[in-house]
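hey so u asked for the seq, here:
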Amino acid sequence: MHAATFLNLLQLASPALPVGAYSYSEGVETLVAQGHITHPETLLDWLTQELRSGSIRLDAAVLARAYRASCDRQWDALHTWNDWLSALRETEELRSQNWQMGRSLMRLFLDLEPAAAPQLPVDWQREPCNFAIAFAIVANHWQIPLPDALLAYLQSWATNLISAGVRLVPLGQTDGQRLLRAIAPTLIATTDEILTLTDEDLMACNWGLALASMGHETQYSRLFRS
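ran it, structure tokens below
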């Protein structure tokens, strides 16, 4: 990979990217409060199952389709997949998270690359835009190869939830780094699988995340927005 492209990838996947990801636990806070996640192994098991059959697989699969649509300037397809992903959110918290992060990333992108605005079909700063869609648009514009963009997207998701677990369980920082290394083979395998999925293959078993998200709304005390 060209050095400039590699730096673009590191910037896009960085935990320091100001899109608000750190403020969401995606159900982990509820699961910790309910005693389902209590140590590194149970957190690893939750993340692994999400990668194998949860909504993050669908997010990544739609990212791949949005990336290709952006490459080909197929704006109708981009809108269709964005609407499809929005309709798939089981709770208001999950939908609000994805719209907020997508809007923040598009606003940041257009601040960094103002010349890109005329190339987009609508004002993605105001239209509801899922984070996976925004990530795909930026990755394509920055000429990041799709497999690398997908792997970085999944790795940044895992990093954020492991960081949430470190604060909530709590876990040690070293435990967090061990978890990130332990889940790496699953991240790679999931990326390879997603690149081969057809539209008919898109499915998820996501009731655990939905229930955790709904429980978060009425939780007694909260550190995270979801």
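The chain has one domain: 27-216. The mean pLDDT is 93.
lmk if thats what u needed
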